[in-house]
Amino acid sequence: MEIKQIANSLHKAGFLKANGGFEYVPAFLKVVDGDAYAILMVDCDKMPGMDVLQYENYLRTARSTLYEYEFDNIHLLGVLCTSNPESVKELVAGFGEHWVVDMVQRRLLIYENQVLTYLDAKDVIEKALLYENEEMANEVERYQRHRQIIKNNWCSYLLVAINLIVFLVLSVLGDTENADFMAKHGALNTADINHGFWYYQIITSIFLHFGVAHLVNNMFSLLIYGNYVEKYMNKFQYLFIYLGAGIIGSIVSAVYYYSFHITNTVCAGASGAIFGLLGAMLWLVIIHKGELDGLGWRQLLFLVFLSIYIGLADSSVGNAAHIGGFVGGILLSMIVTRNKN
Predict the structure, then answer these.
(1) Was domain 3-147 assigned CATH 3.40.1350?
(2) Does 153-336 match 3-147 at the fold level?
(3) Neighbour-count burial for 82-113, b at 16+ CB within 10 Å, e otherwise
(4) Following CA atoms 234, 238, 240, 242 in sequence, which dihedral angle do they give, to the nearest 10 degrees?
(5) Where are the domains of the chain?
(6) How many whole angstroms from its chain centre is CA 271?
(7) With contact defined as beta carbons under 8 Å apart, do 119 and 29 qualify?
């Protein structure tokens, strides 16, 4: 166990490295409401024989150095890192606030009459002490971050799972790249418009895909755009926009083909719904004054126009569904956010 591991954890938690006045006693600082909360990391094993007067001098020097930043108030916590906690008890008995880190047993010791909380430093240090090395800590952090993403954005992953299951079932039953097979299993078939079958197809076709490449491309886009929209809208709003835009895209596509007497086309895919998510992203950016999380409306419009342009170059792409879904996503987003400032 190294002090560097604890220091890196503090830095990731928002504590910035500051000048504590001593090269071998790193200081970390977090400012809250004008008050500075400083942590002085003291490696007692590299300073054997340090007595109370020396330690108090470290603290005074660190406090004096921090006052140069002109904060309203300065709070200072000394964290004594040692392989022998008994050797620093006398130091802890002095003035100020102190915690002790047992570097051998990897545990945080907070003695009687010492502050029990110091912003989120206690949780950060204890978490760092759980793992033998930084690589293991980073691996656990990545796992927890991915788990949190799935937990927060479960609607997007649920929709991906549904599309995957539908695709696997149809792949077992037949050829998902065969238009006749797909038409029999829920794809939007323009030949059925006069017979009234298209009313349910505008829904079922959203969850069907022509082959692996079509599925992978759409699901990749769904996760990217979906995670963004789901971050700023609740689950009902998100599903309302996704399904609503998908249905609108299918209707626009059906009307387009019917108007031009194109009766031999079979359409399927989640792209109309996904373009609806793009429309929702654009509306979110607009109501947040043109930028959100570093994403601007110009970037989004460029992405939309590029996608439509690529679609125009490929006769197999249903741009009517894309445009309908995009406009539908904007309109539906305006509806679900109408009460927000």
Answers:
(1) yes
(2) no
(3) beebeebeebbeeebbbbbbbbeeeebbbeee
(4) 180
(5) 3-147, 153-336
(6) 23
(7) no
Residues 82-106, mean pLDDT to the nearest whole number:
83
Percentage of the chain with pLDDT > 90? 28
Question: Are the C-beta atoms of residues 242 and 290 closer than 8 Å to each other?
Answer: no
Greatest distance between any 2 Cα atoms in the chain: 93
User: What's the mean pLDDT when you consider all of the chain?
Assistant: 84
Please check the confidence at residue 136 and state whether its pLDDT lies above 80. Answer: no
Q: The dihedral of CA 129, 133, 138, 140: what is its sign? A: negative
Second-level CATH architecture of 153-336: Up-down Bundle (1.20)
Take residue 165 and report the two structure tokens written for it: 């299951």
pLDDT tens digits, one per residue of 260-299: 777 788 899 999 999 999 999 989 888 888 777 777 778 8
Contact 154, 231 (CB under 8 A): no
Is 315's pLDDT higher than 70? Answer: no
Give the side-chain half-sphere CA count within 13 A for 161. Answer: 7
What the block records as the tokens of 179 is: 């238009």
Q: Where are the alpha helices (DSSP H) in the chain?
A: 3-12, 52-67, 89-92, 121-129, 134-152, 154-173, 179-184, 198-204, 211-232, 235-259, 271-287, 297-312, 319-336
DSSP state of 206: G
SS (H, E, C) 115-181: CCCECEHHHHHHHHHCCCCHHHHHHHHHHHHHHHHHHHCHHHHHHHHHHHHHHHHHHHHCCCCCHHH
H/E run at residue 291? strand 291-292
> Model confidence over 189-208: pLDDT tens digits?
888 877 766 788 999 999 99
Would you say 243 and 272 are in contact if contact means Cβ atoms under 8 Å apart?
no
Residue reference for tokens 């979906």: 226
DSSP state at residue 16: E
CA atoms of 217 and 92, how far apart (whole Å)? 60
Contact yes or no for 78/99 (Cβ under 8 A): yes
Stated pTM of the model: 0.61
